[in-house]
Amino acid sequence: MNPPIATASHVTNTALDRMQYRADPLADTTISNILGAWNSPPTGSSRPTLVTTWQSQWQKLATVTQTFAQWPDNRSIGAWQASGAGLSPEIGAPLHSYAQASRHLPDWADLSKIERAEALFMDYGVLSVTMLFCSSLPECYVIPDLAVVLHVTGQLEKHTTYRVRATGAMIFPVMMKGGLTAPNGGGVAQIFKVRLIHATIRNLILRGSPEAAIAALGAGENGCYAAEAGVVPP
Questions:
Q1: pLDDT tens for residues 30-51?
Q2: CB within 10 Å: which end of the chain, N or C, has fewer?
Q3: pTM for this entry
Q4: Do the Cβ atoms of 21 and 211 come closer than 8 Å?
Q5: Strands, E assignment, the chain
Q6: Does position 23 have pLDDT exceeding 80, yes or no?
Q7: DSSP state of 159
């Protein structure tokens, strides 16, 4: 799924600084290829005007979301074909490429460590998720940059309990026995979807890929992002 992780002896402050600008290139490219270029709305546009201007993007995102139902477990990822009603080539082709590249664990994955982690989760899972829901997540939510993203998506004030449950919906399929390794496990499939969801949020906020946004800022451009306009899918 991702390149090998550098060992501690090879990590420098410069490398760490650059990593804060790196998101998930594969998922980001997939979503960027699906959504295409964002049209620039008239200055001072109202929310209805913005929604109309970007209606094509919303429709494509709706199709991607509907496709998630075809990936209930790890086996379904490997067998999935880009076909079906409403799945045009401009959506199906990027998703198929993403599926082919993401369906296997990376070469550096250690199966013995994964099995050990699964066993630990069975022993301490209730305690760990209780700490996550009651402490770790709330503490993350007060970080300004993260809070802004959650506010833009409406997941902080309006759907708080859903946001917490959604985190659990990812953790359990990943951590249960066979979640990442068994065909009937759900861990790979769940991560598969979460990566696309996060890439979608980044694309909505930046109106493009993180790489394009960084290049624009480096060139001195002052982009007006969807987050500034307060626009989320209707």
A1: 999 998 887 766 666 566 666 6
A2: C
A3: 0.78
A4: no
A5: none
A6: yes
A7: S
